[in-house]
Structures are given as structure tokens and as C-alpha cells.
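Appendix B, Record 12. Input sequence as logged:
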Amino acid sequence: MTAYMPYINNKLLELIDDNVLSRDKHFTEHKENVKKFVEQMSEESFEIPKNESERNTNFLTLENMLEKTLLSTLKIKNGKKSLERFAHYGEEEIEQ
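Logged structural output:
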């Protein structure tokens, strides 16, 4: 689970940035990595075992659902301020 934490951190920062809550900071690490990953899955689809390919597809689907949690946070009292603070102090981490 700890190996997954940089991924979640970067995804949250990306979502905050996409919703114009990060002011002058921009977070692109995660988006670029996901794009490369999807391209790699497409290019090497014939080499990836079916169960691994399905797992990766399901994982990407779940990731796309994370934006809904951000929208829920924006609706609660101080939710917007919390996300802005997270972006202010947050830094992208290296994903492995």
C-alpha cells in the first residue's frame, strides 16, 4: 500500500490543479505517467496476460472515479480551503 501512496498523492494534486484550486502551482507528473502507461498497454497488448490487462483496465477505471470524491469534498464546509492548502504544501512524488 505504501508504494501506492505517491500515486494517490499525485492524482489528488492533478485533480486539484484541473479544478483551478492550486493557484500558481501545476501538477503534471501523474497525468504524464498515466498517458505513458496507457500507450504502453496499447502497444504491448499482445504480450500482456489477459488477467493483468483486465486488472490494469479496472485500475484505470477506478482512478477515473476519484474525481467524484473531489467534487464531494468541494461541497463540504471548508472543503475548497482544504484542497487549496493541500496543493499549497503538496509536492509531486516520484511514482514507481
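Residues 50-75 form the longest helix (26 residues).
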